[in-house]
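TICKET: design request
STATUS: open
ATTACHED STRUCTURE:
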């Protein structure tokens, strides 16, 4: 039995911070995480009111095991620093900082967050070019997660979203590589056509293939598909348990390579199996 611990982040749902009814509904949705949004979903004239509404909901709590993250406005906007101060007072599980493009952006956000965990949006061309430096700033900043802002990347690069996101795949892959290099989670961007279940399923499967931990969502209708695709399958879990059990046999305890059902299995496969088992256990709980 593995002792590893993981927090599932399969389904990460954006909810408008100005909408108290939506924030209440989020308490009953089967999502792993909720991003209470003060940025894109809130009009400029409603920013202050949304901040008050969102932080009141965070302070009241009631979200159970769901991870609750507050996305503030960019720190270079008129609202960003006030959002950050309000977030520190409301104590969400993490603060999501948009438009992070440099390590200096991370350092500035960390100084204002006073130790609260940070997530950052990777959504600018400069952020892609600076992924290594942003990742290196992670530990000192208590940074735990990259979140892809694919709509902003498309806008700024003038790439097209079609053809299975072929134009975006290099940027997505680089973000995953940087996340893994610095022990961070990586959450894929949104799928805008929320009524297109087939297309959404394909994009979730692509996210899994790229190594993403989960996907940001814009509508509750996307939750069930997202949870299913980003969860270990029955086949994955069965194989993981066979590998773990095989290495647990006394005569295999000191071996680096063993055979399981005719397949060569190394200790790196054991580590992968333990991670699958830990994620499955966390999901089941």
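STATUS: resolved
RESOLUTION: sequence designed for all positions
ATTACHED SEQUENCE:
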């Amino acid at each position: 039995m593995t002792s590893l611990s993981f927090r599932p982040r399969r389904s990460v749902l954006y909810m408008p911070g100005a909408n108290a009814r939506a924030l209440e509904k989020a308490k009953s949705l089967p999502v792993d995480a909720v991003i209470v949004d003060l940025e894109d979903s809130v009009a400029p004239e409603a920013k202050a009111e949304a901040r008050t509404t969102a932080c009141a909901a965070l302070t009241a709590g009631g979200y159970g095991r769901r991870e609750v993250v507050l996305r503030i406005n960019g720190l270079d906007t008129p609202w960003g620093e006030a959002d950050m101060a309000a977030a520190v007072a409301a104590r969400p599980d993490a603060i999501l900082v948009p438009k992070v493009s440099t390590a200096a952006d991370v350092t500035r956000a960390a100084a204002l967050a006073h130790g609260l965990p940070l997530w950052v949006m990777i959504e600018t061309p400069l952020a892609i070019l600076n992924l290594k430096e942003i990742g290196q700033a992670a530990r000192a900043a208590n940074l735990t997660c990259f979140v892809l802002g694919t709509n902003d990347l498309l806008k700024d690069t003038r790439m097209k979203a079609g053809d299975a996101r072929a134009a975006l795949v290099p940027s997505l892959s680089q973000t995953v590589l940087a996340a893994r290099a610095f022990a961070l989670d990586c959450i894929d961007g949104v799928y805008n056509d929320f009524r297109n279940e087939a297309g959404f399923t394909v994009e979730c499967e692509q996210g899994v293939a790229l190594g993403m931990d989960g996907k940001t969502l814009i509508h509750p209708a996307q939750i069930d598909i997202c949870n299913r695709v980003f969860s270990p399958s029955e086949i994955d879990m069965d194989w993981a348990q066979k590998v773990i059990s095989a290495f647990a046999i006394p005569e295999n305890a000191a071996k680096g390579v063993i055979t399981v059902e005719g397949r060569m299995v190394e200790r790196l496969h054991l580590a992968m199996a333990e991670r699958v088992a830990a994620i499955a256990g966390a999901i089941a709980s």
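CLOSING REMARK: The longest strand covers residues 11-16. The CA atoms of residues 66 and 245 lie 31 Å apart.
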